[in-house]
Amino acid sequence: MLRILCAFLLLPLLPAAQPPDTPAGRTLAAWLEAFNSADRAKIKAFLDVHPSKWQVEEALEFREETGGFELIRIVKSEPTALTALVKARDAGYFSELTLKVEAEPPHRIAGMRLMRTALPPGEPAPPRLSQAEALAGWRVQIERRAAADQFSGAVLLAKNGKILFSQAYGLADRERTRKNTLETQFRLGSMNKMFTSVATLELVEAGKLALEDPLAKHLPDYPNQELARKVTVRHLLTHTGGTGDIFGPEYDKNRLKLRTLNDYVKLYGARGLQFEPGSRWAYSNYGFLLLGVLIERVSGKSYYDYVREHVFKPAGMKATDSLPEEQVVKKRATGYMRREGAWKPNTDTLPWRGTSAGGGYSTVGDLLRFAEALKKGRLLEPKLVREATSRQKPSPGYGFGFGVSDEDGMRRFGHAGGAPGMNGDLRVYPDSGYVVAVLANLDPPAATRLADWLEQRLPAR
To answer: Which residues 6+ apart lie within 8 Å of 339 measured at CB?
Structure first.
């Protein structure tokens, strides 16, 4: 299903267009009518005519995320194909919709794609607001989402280390009606990669690793020696190693058997390279899994002990860890994923334990402590922090374990994480001093859409 992490509301309205009177245009009109209705029967009737990989429940979930689509402009039109600009009503972002239909009646959909796009030419971005205005507007958005059961979690906004606003919403456990609090620990998904990056770079600073070291130098027993000779620490940190991912049928089959980082190497280590290291960027959870293996081999400690001692402890993070799911963590929230129109626990999707690639848990307060420890040089030397949080070619927006951006002159770094029943986002703005942390125990983009909304409106300085 499409997962579009989006900004939210207050974009200027454009005059709506009408679909052309062509087979493609009439199919588009029928899709918009069914999808926007949020009516299960109408969506099913449309999908019965136009078979799709989408199921009715997925379409309804996407409809809830977006609020439906408004047709803004027909960009290109042919009898059986068109390109249109559409706007997500609730989410506020624009997308390019391309549609192809069969030439013969009933003109079934042969291909359809939605790609988020920049604002249309001449359309201004939401205006920057004062800090007070941005915060007041953010609270309205959060409360609206929480009231509609589209956000459950915790939020935090700080400036120069001082918390301006922090609040929890929704339930940590729906069965027991346990409320989320600021002490609730939410699963992080891929946000763990920031901790793995810092741990790796600490070992680089200590001279125990080098960015250009190949895997083979420290893992001479790695199953695929060609990969081990070619892939370096730098490649792993920047997702340019061609090491592939871990998720898929093999992972699903072995999910609860994968208990140590080396268990992943036993399962995936014989695989070859997907591309020549350094030639391109491709997000790789397995690459960060291998960084955890390196940390263990070089430090002589388990990955978990190392990050506790060298990342969490010096940063003052007392509520962050990756204990096994079978171990009771009293303040850890249950994650909820949308299935068949209702929120269901994500228990059957979780790994046995979080890894160096993701899956731990934390609080918004601990994420602020991590950000401040980075900014103040308590974890890494400032020069290395700057390098780690700057774009590393050929990535589109990634440093060493950190997502980075400089849009609209507002430099930031951090990381998001998402999986069924969990979504989180940490954004650090070094020039303005702002830190935004949002954690949710619901599907993406429950947290990221709120971080997006605030980022577009905060003062740049």
So the answer is: 57
Can you say whether the dihedral through the CA atoms of 278, 380, 199, 333 is positive or negative? negative
Q: Which of 67, 65, 61, 71 is nearest to 19 (CA)?
A: 71
φ/ψ (deg, to 5) at 278 = 90, -10
Q: What is the pLDDT of residue 151?
A: 97
Widest Cα–Cα separation across the chain: 69
CB atoms within 10 A of CB 382: 11
Please give the Cα distance from 288 to 307 (Å, whole number): 14
Inform me whether the pLDDT recorded for 118 exceeds 80.
no
At residue 122, the pLDDT reads: 60
Calculate helix-pair angle for 285-299, 261-268, nearest 10 degrees: 130
- ∠287-336-92 over CA atoms, to 5°? 80
Rounded distance between C-alpha atoms, residue 184 and residue 166, angstroms: 13
Q: Which secondary-structure segment (H or E) carries 66?
A: helix 56-66
Q: Is 133 buried (19+), middle (13-18) or exposed (0-12) by CB count in 10 A?
A: middle
pLDDT given at position 91:
67
Task: Specify whether the CB–CB gap between 435 and 157 falls below 8 A.
Answer: yes
Strands 153-159 and 412-419: unpaired
196's tokens: 């793995």
Question: pTM for the whole thing?
Answer: 0.81
Measure the CA–CA gap between 59 and 70, rounded to whole angstroms.
16
The domains found in the chain, sorted by start residue, are 23-117 (3.10.450), 128-461 (3.40.710.10)
Distance of CA 144 to the CA centre of its chain: 22
